[in-house]
Write a structure and sequence with these properties.
- The chain is of the alpha/beta class and about 425 residues long.
- It folds into three domains: about 110 residues, no CATH class; about 140 residues, Rossmann fold; about 150 residues, Rossmann fold, CATH 3.40.50.
- About 40% of the residues lie in helices and about 15% in strands.
- The chain has 16 helices and twelve strands.
- The strands form two sheets. It has a seven-stranded mixed β-sheet, with helices on both faces. The protein has a five-stranded parallel β-sheet with strand order 2-1-3-4-5, with helices on both faces.
Length: about 425
């Protein structure tokens, strides 16, 4: 028992007499007394030098390395050479107990590791993106997941740029996360191109079925599910709001991204609704800044014009350009989110982005606890926001209808 005694001597804060009071449940079978309150083979590790006992359910319980346990058993066996009797079947008992304990200890260690979440969001230094990320983080905390403690959130910001977003999607998948949060259609599309196995929870996706991300809303199939931004029918509401705010508008330039299914779907609805409201629409791409500026300048040369901004990562990225062009040419504009209105656009109506990310935390929690995306139905928005910029209305010489003002969730003065 020399090696065991040497180990015990290193426990300087424990008294030898206290250690002698207990017996190892495994070694008791062989007739050997154990000088440790806890058994080396059981893998119990004290949380402090004064904790003489530890529950088997203590979260700090760890397993012992197999080499150390075998070394301990060999020490016990060799003790027979020093006059301490130990039968062959006792050694077999010890080996069996150790072998049974190791798998359970290994599983406990695996479940205690920090889980990894990849997040592909919007723009890094953007207030809206920060609010979405913070809402997601707070939602996780309420469910018991704290970043830096039992979970690690690895965030990337694609900023609506396809090249950058593709690069970050590949990086996140290569890091082998437990789940990936993808914000918007572009991020979701590019992450799905990188993996069909890593679970993906998406947010702010206008048409997950039409985009091919899921098989259906109720039964997503595959490795993705999440929260849709809206149904395309909501796009028609933007034409109505523009007409309510600026009754003289008879022409509308529509900023859209024709490279994504959501862009095509939104414009199709706007185009079908506009004639009934006496509005003629013209699509304008956002890809090239100088081309966009020339197109709006030509459009604004004719009277009674307005702007409609469809939902896309590209539009969010170019929102300052949109605001500048609307102000420069005195065009009333309607957009799908409040972030545009805080930058000077007249009015917005759409889903609350932060709320979607708060709700996404619940789906991520379920994934981390063992559920699959295919079993999580795609959720529709539950919270919409109507935001009006009174300062912009006054600058354009517009009077906000009292009924519309009363319905507003937020008014910027």
């Amino acid at each position: 028992m020399l090696r065991l005694a040497e180990r015990l001597q290193n426990l300087s804060l424990l008294k030898w007499s206290a250690l002698r009071k207990a017996e190892c449940p495994l070694l008791a079978l062989s007739g050997h007394s154990c000088l440790r309150r806890t058994c080396l083979l059981s893998g119990a590790k004290r949380t402090s030098s004064f904790a003489l006992q530890m529950s088997a359910y203590d979260p700090k319980r760890t397993s012992i390395a197999p080499s150390e346990a075998l070394d301990f058993i060999v020490t016990m066996a060799r003790s027979s050479a020093s006059g301490v009797a130990m039968r062959r079947r006792d050694v077999i008992t010890l080996l069996g107990g150790a072998a049974a304990a190791w798998p359970f200890a290994a599983r406990a260690q695996q479940s205690d590791r920090a889980r990894r979440i990849g997040a592909l969001i919007g723009i890094e230094d953007d207030a809206t993106s920060k609010a979405m990320h913070e809402a997601f983080r707070q939602g996780l905390e309420q469910l018991g997941w704290t970043d830096g403690r039992n979970v690690r959130i690895d965030a990337r910001f694609g900023a609506g740029d396809p090249v950058r977003t593709r690069k970050y999607a590949a990086e996140l998948v290569a890091s082998s996360p437990d789940v990936i949060l993808a914000t918007g259609s572009l991020a979701t599309q590019l992450v799905l191109q990188e993996t069909h196995t890593v679970p993906i929870i998406f947010t702010i996706v206008p048409d997950p079925v039409g985009s091919g991300f899921v098989d259906s809303l109720s039964q997503p199939g595959g490795n993705a599910s999440g929260f849709m931004q809206f149904e395309y029918s909501l796009s028609g509401k933007w034409v109505e709001l523009l007409k309510q705010m600026a009754p003289n508008v008879t022409r509308a330039a529509v900023f859209w991204d024709p490279t994504i299914p959501a862009g095509i779907g939104q414009f199709a609805v706007i185009q079908s609704v506009a004639p009934s409201l006496g509005v003629d629409v013209r699509p304008i791409k956002l890809r090239d800044t100088s081309e966009t500026e020339r197109a709006i300048a030509a459009f604004a040369s004719q009277p009674n014009g307005g702007l409609i901004v469809t939902a896309s990562a590209l539009a969010v990225t170019h929102r300052e350009l949109i605001n500048t062009l609307a102000a420069k040419h005195k065009l009333p504009a309607v957009a799908p989110n409040r972030v545009y209105v805080t930058n000077g656009v007249l009015i917005s109506y759409g889903v609350d982005f932060a709320d979607q990310h708060r709700r996404a935390a619940a789906y991520v929690d379920r994934i981390l606890k063992g559920e699959k995306p295919t079993d999580l139905p795609v959720q529709a928005p539950t919270k919409y926001e109507l935001v009006i910029n009174l300062k912009t209305a006054k600058a354009l010489g517009l009077t906000v209808p009292p009924a519309l003002l009363a319905r507003a969730d937020e008014v910027i003065e």
